[in-house]
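My convention is simple: the sequence line spells out the residues, with the fold written below as integer tokens. I include a record here:
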Amino acid sequence: LAWLPGTTEMTPKLQRFGYAELALNELCILGNEGSVIRIHEFHRSKASVNLPTRYNLKKVRHQEVIKEWSCGYIKGNGIAAYAHMHFAGNLSFAKAFVQSCLTYKKEGNNGIY
């Protein structure tokens, strides 16, 4: 039984590789809509999920946007995405995540997005 409604497939070549900028397109356990953090992707698979995406990404080279896409899925209190983020890139993401965990501990599902 899959946690997310959809499929994945392995491919013979890299689908995404490198650094990009991720922006949240809505409030979630990682922060407010519009919050931005630098990420890295490296994967050879594709996902086709029947849920709305929650992140907007763009790859910038020499101050020019060379690629844009969306990814990231939220189901209940979980998040799934190919984007690997390091919270030191934007400490507000870490603070929002910890606060979400504390709220969940105190209020259960009633206090989470």
In short: Strands lie at 6-10, 16-24, 36-43, 45-49, 55-61, 64-71, 73-75, 78-80, 84-85. The chain has one helix and nine strands.
